[in-house]
Amino acid sequence: MLSWSLGRVPFATRLAGRIFSDPMRYATGKPLERWLMLIDLASRKLVFANDPKVVETVMLDRAGQFPKSAVVHDLLKPLIGGGVFGQPGGASVKETRRIFSRSLATIPDEEVRRVTEAITADYLDRWLAAPGGQVAISEELSRLTVDIVSHCTLGDRFDADQSLRFTRLFFAFHRKAAPLVLMLAGQDERARARVMRDMGIEEIGGEMRALMRERFVTPLINGDRPLETAPFALALAEAGRLEPGLAGEEALLDEIAVMLLAGHETTASTLSWLSYELAGRPELQDATAAALAGRTEGEGFWGAADPDSIADALAREALRIYPPIGFFLREAQEDIVFRTKPVPAGSFVLVAPWTLHRHQKLWWRPDDFSPRRWLEGGPAPARTSYMPFGMGARGCPGARFADIEMAAILRGLLARARLTLVPGTRPKPLGNLTSRPDKEIMLRLSERSRT
């Protein structure tokens, strides 16, 4: 009935979007306690998997039984077209992911660090000069990380107006994209097409693609920017992926969209939440700023930990509490049994870092933001209980790049600025595509004393 209504009743998508706009609300309570849950949807089942063996089976997917859901492809297509991130799997996807990895491996760690430090310093100059010191930190960190990724991989950056428009469009896309509604539409093609149309994300995606085409694709295609200055485009060309004509241009745009969107969003989202947590904990923030600058005396909050370990612990805890991708959605291709429960072919299988990272049976005081847990010498978490960048062949190829970038931004930010919260509504993770905040995080930045 719901699927039928979504395909035929005016405003049904909008109404369903209001009801099912917050995936995070369904990831509390029992999903944080149980190993496996089966939920009946309109036309098929949804499996909520926390059991370590089930998670490993699904995420490693050695037999190819659990491809990425078509829901993910449909939601991302307006932005990335046929880009690798939206594809279910297969040999071509594996090879494209290797191209991503190879291109990133050609960029020296020191170059990533140097570029990050320089661009972060420029942004800090502007933030600290803002009226009242107030900064929309989620938006600004998105702009910053897009600049870093594009400079390192494509040899260029958006101008200021393009950057602001791009990040605001991406936030609007996040708010409108509604995976739960598309899942409830079932396999009714008419319902799915209407849901996609009524979301309004195709227009947003089209404008974002036009910005990327103008700034990055056209100059490379026309030879106005040599491929040698754009390591990612060069890697695609060397692999024979740049075909002549419109098809080649569209394929290049698709993969550049993946690189920019996936490459910046996880870092920006994580740093937004980390900034929020530090702004609300001034003693922790000050202790961290001093430790990262090598100005600690005695044991202090961080004990004898070195600056690199401190930056790593903060990043790990932010990634645990606010995993950038909260949900990995797969589809079972065959009938299977999980923990004695039959799962029919066609079922959605959900592996959620959001619940795995907070599961009561996997973590001590899972809801506490406690970065020192990563320094206390306890056993490492099981690999299925901590997976902010995925697992197996579909793991993030840019994880190393993100680690270096995140640490450099954090050091630069805390070296110069003190963060304080601006009173207002408490933000929550959006959860539709990533865990970016549902409302802008407003912070006040002031110059930090360097004595």
From TrEMBL:
Heme binds at C396. This is Cytochrome P450. The keyword Transcription does not apply. InterPro entries: Cyt_P450, Cyt_P450_CS, Cyt_P450_E_grp-IV, Cyt_P450_sf, Cytochrome_P450_monoxygenase. GO terms for molecular function: heme binding; iron ion binding; monooxygenase activity; oxidoreductase activity, acting on paired donors, with incorporation or reduction of molecular oxygen. SUPFAM superfamilies: Cytochrome P450. CDD domains: cytochrome_P450. It holds the Pfam family p450.
